[in-house]
Predict the 3D structure of the following.
Amino acid sequence: MLERTLAEDRLKSKEIIELKQIINGSKPKSKVYVEVNPGEEITVPAKKGQTSVNFIFTHMETYNRKSPSQSKKSPFLPPFETGQFITDLSETHRLLYNKRPVVDNHLLIVTSSFEEQTDPLNLHDFSAAYKVLLTMNGVCYFNSGRHSGSTQPHKHLQWIPKPKEDKSEIVTLLDEEVILHEKPFRWPIYSFAHLIAPLPNFEGIKNNDEIGARLVELYLEMMENLKIKKKIDSHNLVMDEKWMMVVKRSKENTFHNINVNALAFAGRISL
């Protein structure tokens, strides 16, 4: 029911239709946008109990992890390189292409004025992020704190398209799992500190800020339940139209000594 309503809303909302047209028509014609070679991806199957899970590893030959930028100018503030800026999502957020993509069409949802990446997400962050989720079929994620895989101090969420449907892909498994729950839950597949929550039914709600307010309430509740201290503890968030996952982090190299960010918990790891 919720899935059908969201699909109908996409078709009915002029704002969503226009945003999709802007995104689809904005592919940069400069070196800002780098196409990722699908041949650089490998799928590694894993198994937990009776559940098969696939992880996607992407080898980025030119991708070099860096410490958070020490530059006085944020790369998420104008002037932008040609083709980097897509559109303003609201008075508080804008949409950019990621200059260091891990997949094609890797987008950034950034605050229009500088805010700290260690600040917890707020109503406006969720309002902007969910607007993008309604527009494009993908996943939003957020890295906060020095153990989260974050590399930029300017507050931003990231969006990537969902991979082709794979019954063993984590996002697909979670889409199926959340319909069995009404409240935040721990997924038996994961043994680390996390919570996953089904999102509220937004049927009939057209105001993005009202949606953002309900999402931030859920997010802060999960933060509290996981005992994540704001601006002190590191954490990751992953979200699609149906669910939200929050993970408490104590170290960055948690997966076979590989540094990972929020995407790892959605089944995608960049090397």
